[in-house]
Design goal:
Keywords: DNA-binding, Transcription, Transcription regulation
Protein name: IclR family transcriptional regulator
CATH architecture of the largest domain: 2-Layer Sandwich
InterPro entries: GAF-like_dom_sf, HTH_MetabolicPath_Reg, Tscrpt_reg_IclR_C, Tscrpt_reg_IclR_N, WH-like_DNA-bd_sf, WH_DNA-bd_sf
Distance between the termini: 32 Å
Pfam family, one: HTH_IclR
Strand order of the largest sheet: 5-4-3-8-7-6
GO molecular function: DNA binding; DNA-binding transcription factor activity
Strand content: 15-25%
Number of domains: 2
Structural class: alpha+beta
Length: 245
């Protein structure tokens, strides 16, 4: 984030060494960060001058930001239908640095339900919502976001090493879903799917409720969850084929 914020109207381009001096970082660290950003399209390198400027991914993010207010409005009827069909709370989350943030939610009816708070921020390594969001990112990028091991433990089921997280992410790659059995709150169970647009993960869609009830319903909940993800993807980008499968 510091690297990206260094670009401005006054300084639209940076060399590796001068950016390192500006940020107080070693040249090798800056080179690695810039290479990672370049691979994702956030910066572009001039092959002749070897200087960097902002890339097309920044413009894409700006467009997403413009639509972010609409995201919750578009998602809410999908979440309401999902919560009604399953009897569990339906939640939409987006990445927020090394965490994830709830942008829309519809709580299940009944006394024994999970109440989601829009705007609430949760640690990215704890819970299936985070696993569904970060599974597609390169490990080194996630390390930069999450920080060094051991990661904060909230319950006995919280993954605290990257080896554990890689196993969680592989589950997403293999099955298209992530399951959490009390990773942040021992009393809460959940299942999540990544929301894809043009092949890229832009959010995660989650069903969440009391662990004693949800844990035994994972397969039952997965089908309507995937259907809701496909519905929401089609509403956000008609004709896009990137819905969960």
């Amino acid at each position: 984030m510091q690297v990206l914020l260094s670009f401005s109207d006054q300084r639209p381009e940076w060399g590796v060494s001068e950016l390192g001096r500006e940020l107080g970082l070693d040249k090798s660290v800056v080179q690695r960060l810039l290479a990672t950003l370049a691979n994702r399209g956030f910066v572009l390198a001039d092959p002749e001058t070897r200087r960097y400027r902002l890339g097309p991914a920044i413009s894409q993010l700006a467009r997403v930001a413009e639509r972010s207010g609409a995201l919750s409005l578009i998602a809410r009827p999908v979440l309401a239908k999902l919560a009604r069909e399953t009897g569990e709370s339906a939640v939409l989350n987006v990445a927020h640095g090394g965490s994830y943030r709830t942008v829309a939610a519809v709580d299940a009816r009944g006394p024994l339900s999970y109440s989601a708070i829009v705007g609430h921020v949760m640690p990215g390594h704890a819970g299936c919502s985070g696993h569904a969001l970060f599974a597609g990112q390169p490990l080194e990028e996630v390390r930069e976001l999450f920080g060094p091991e051991p990661l904060t433990r909230f319950t006995p089921n919280t993954p605290t090493t990257y080896a554990e997280l890689v196993r969680r992410w592989q589950e997403v790659a293999d099955t298209g879903r992530s399951v959490s059995d009390g990773e942040f709150d021992a009393n809460v169970g959940a299942v999540a799917v990544p929301l894809l647009l043009s092949g890229a993960t832009v959010a995660s869609l989650t069903l969440i409720g009391p662990a004693e009830r949800v844990t035994g319903r994972i397969d039952e909940l997965t089908a309507p969850l995937r259907a809701a993800g496909a519905d929401l993807s089609s509403r956000l980008a008609p004709g896009d084929a990137g819905a969960p499968s």
